[in-house]
Design goal:
Length: 99
């Protein structure tokens, strides 16, 4: 299943403005890769940022939102951000269902 992780932080917790957040941010991608197997993540499809919106968007192929929730806690994403985990679908899959 595909999931989008939408992690939003306040400007004062932005890695550009906060040394603790900066440390977390610099380590996050490595921690995500290390934690993938433990938390049932099949693949990280994308990791994007909207700097001015203070939002991270991570697209994963994973078994469950509950495992993703635990991973966000373990790797530190939830220490600086409010996290929303949303099941998402590939556009072509939705079109096939509609037809």
């Amino acid at each position: 299943m595909l999931f989008g992780i939408f992690a939003v932080h306040s400007p004062d917790l932005c890695p550009l403005n906060n040394s603790r957040s900066k440390k977390t941010f610099l380590e996050i991608k490595g921690k995500l890769k290390s934690a993938q197997k433990k938390f049932g993540i099949k693949k990280m499809l994308g990791f994007y940022m909207s700097v001015l919106e203070h939002e991270w968007i991570i697209i994963l192929d994973a078994k469950s939102a509950h495992d993703i929730e635990q991973m966000c806690i373990a790797v530190g994403i939830s220490s600086t951000s409010t996290v929303k985990i949303v099941p998402i679908n590939d556009f072509n899959d939705v079109i096939a269902r509609i037809k």
